[in-house]
Amino acid sequence: MARKITGHTRLACLLGSPVEHSISPAMHNEAFEQLGLDCAYLAFDAGVDKMPQVAEGLRAMNVLGFNITMPDKNIMCELCDELSPAARIGGAVNTVLNDNGKFVGYTTDGTGFMMACKDSGFDIIGKKMTLLGAGGAASAILIQAALDGVKEISVFSIHDAFWDRAEKIVETLNAETKCMVTLFDFDDPSVLKSEIAGSDILTNGTSVGMAPNTDGCLITDTSVFHENLMVFDVIYNPKETKLLKLAKECGCRTANGMYMLLYQGAASFKIWTGQDMPVDIIKDKYFK
């Protein structure tokens, strides 16, 4: 029997542009149904120019909360009344809780990464990570990993539009956490090799290797891979990137970004409802 919408149904939603491809509505609505929650999740195409009006409309409608995807994550920081530590440091919000009219902004992408690592059987707390990239996904991973207790993180980035922001994030994390974070220019293969040699996990936080450009790979020297290294790629299309294929051939444990997507959604669900998303059911239905 189809789940009924009632006069008490609370709305949660996704804002961004485009949003038609998103798996979030299916995932959250399944979770609401499984737990018997009178809530519904929809996706709305809303760009940056519309975001202030849309946000105020959602506040007036007393929605449960909402997710934000690109290109709206940065402007949402300015529209929230309160920010979580990770959202404040990164200057980006992907989840908003409507707390009796007060918008509290969170970023759950990094939480999704940490939970995906744990799901793969690899606990990175107290360990060293080498992180490739300093864009949105990489920054979220960097911040949450430092906040959660990763011991040391070496970040490699090119001198692009994200460099200055990365410097500020690194400075803040070194001041506010016990994690030792260092930013390196991605221009010296010997430095990269040295940092990976001492790392427990190598994470690609960039889009290099994503379909349709599946031949892309930031690691060209496979001697950097060692048997104790976990290699994580935030990309999930293709499921096995060139980076993961090379790492697996060298005996490394590997994981893609599919469960990072699942667990960032589960973290949002927990923020809104206070309940755990039934991730095993969601995995079986939507992540095979």
From TrEMBL:
<dbReference type="GO" id="GO:0052734">
    <property type="term" value="F:shikimate 3-dehydrogenase (NAD+) activity"/>
</dbReference>
<dbReference type="GO" id="GO:0004764">
    <property type="term" value="F:shikimate 3-dehydrogenase (NADP+) activity"/>
</dbReference>
<dbReference type="GO" id="GO:0009423">
    <property type="term" value="P:chorismate biosynthetic process"/>
</dbReference>
<comment type="pathway">
    <text>Aromatic compound metabolism; 3,4-dihydroxybenzoate biosynthesis; 3-dehydroquinate from D-quinate (NAD(+) route).</text>
</comment>
<feature type="active site" description="Proton acceptor">
    <location>
        <position position="73"/>
    </location>
</feature>
<dbReference type="GO" id="GO:0050661">
    <property type="term" value="F:NADP binding"/>
</dbReference>
<feature type="domain" description="Shikimate dehydrogenase substrate binding N-terminal">
    <location>
        <begin position="14"/>
        <end position="96"/>
    </location>
</feature>
<feature type="binding site">
    <location>
        <begin position="133"/>
        <end position="137"/>
    </location>
    <ligand>
        <name>NADP(+)</name>
    </ligand>
</feature>
<feature type="binding site">
    <location>
        <position position="234"/>
    </location>
    <ligand>
        <name>NADP(+)</name>
    </ligand>
</feature>
<dbReference type="Pfam" id="PF08501">
    <property type="entry name" value="Shikimate_dh_N"/>
</dbReference>
<feature type="binding site">
    <location>
        <position position="257"/>
    </location>
    <ligand>
        <name>NADP(+)</name>
    </ligand>
</feature>
<dbReference type="Pfam" id="PF18317">
    <property type="entry name" value="SDH_C"/>
</dbReference>
<dbReference type="GO" id="GO:0030266">
    <property type="term" value="F:quinate 3-dehydrogenase (NAD+) activity"/>
</dbReference>
<dbReference type="InterPro" id="IPR046346">
    <property type="entry name" value="Aminoacid_DH-like_N_sf"/>
</dbReference>
<comment type="subunit">
    <text>Homodimer.</text>
</comment>
<dbReference type="InterPro" id="IPR013708">
    <property type="entry name" value="Shikimate_DH-bd_N"/>
</dbReference>
<comment type="function">
    <text>Involved in the biosynthesis of the chorismate, which leads to the biosynthesis of aromatic amino acids. Catalyzes the reversible NADPH linked reduction of 3-dehydroshikimate (DHSA) to yield shikimate (SA).</text>
</comment>
<feature type="binding site">
    <location>
        <begin position="22"/>
        <end position="24"/>
    </location>
    <ligand>
        <name>shikimate</name>
    </ligand>
</feature>
<dbReference type="InterPro" id="IPR036291">
    <property type="entry name" value="NAD(P)-bd_dom_sf"/>
</dbReference>
<keyword id="KW-0028">Amino-acid biosynthesis</keyword>
<feature type="binding site">
    <location>
        <position position="94"/>
    </location>
    <ligand>
        <name>shikimate</name>
    </ligand>
</feature>
<feature type="binding site">
    <location>
        <position position="109"/>
    </location>
    <ligand>
        <name>shikimate</name>
    </ligand>
</feature>
<dbReference type="GO" id="GO:0009073">
    <property type="term" value="P:aromatic amino acid family biosynthetic process"/>
</dbReference>
<comment type="pathway">
    <text>Metabolic intermediate biosynthesis; chorismate biosynthesis; chorismate from D-erythrose 4-phosphate and phosphoenolpyruvate: step 4/7.</text>
</comment>
<protein>
    <recommendedName>
        <fullName>Shikimate dehydrogenase (NADP(+))</fullName>
        <ecNumber>1.1.1.25</ecNumber>
    </recommendedName>
</protein>
<feature type="domain" description="SDH C-terminal">
    <location>
        <begin position="257"/>
        <end position="283"/>
    </location>
</feature>
<dbReference type="InterPro" id="IPR011342">
    <property type="entry name" value="Shikimate_DH"/>
</dbReference>
<dbReference type="GO" id="GO:0008652">
    <property type="term" value="P:amino acid biosynthetic process"/>
</dbReference>
<comment type="similarity">
    <text>Belongs to the shikimate dehydrogenase family.</text>
</comment>
<keyword id="KW-0521">NADP</keyword>
<dbReference type="InterPro" id="IPR022893">
    <property type="entry name" value="Shikimate_DH_fam"/>
</dbReference>
<feature type="binding site">
    <location>
        <position position="69"/>
    </location>
    <ligand>
        <name>shikimate</name>
    </ligand>
</feature>
<dbReference type="InterPro" id="IPR041121">
    <property type="entry name" value="SDH_C"/>
</dbReference>
<feature type="binding site">
    <location>
        <position position="236"/>
    </location>
    <ligand>
        <name>shikimate</name>
    </ligand>
</feature>
<dbReference type="GO" id="GO:0019632">
    <property type="term" value="P:shikimate metabolic process"/>
</dbReference>
<keyword id="KW-0057">Aromatic amino acid biosynthesis</keyword>
<feature type="binding site">
    <location>
        <position position="264"/>
    </location>
    <ligand>
        <name>shikimate</name>
    </ligand>
</feature>
<keyword id="KW-0560">Oxidoreductase</keyword>
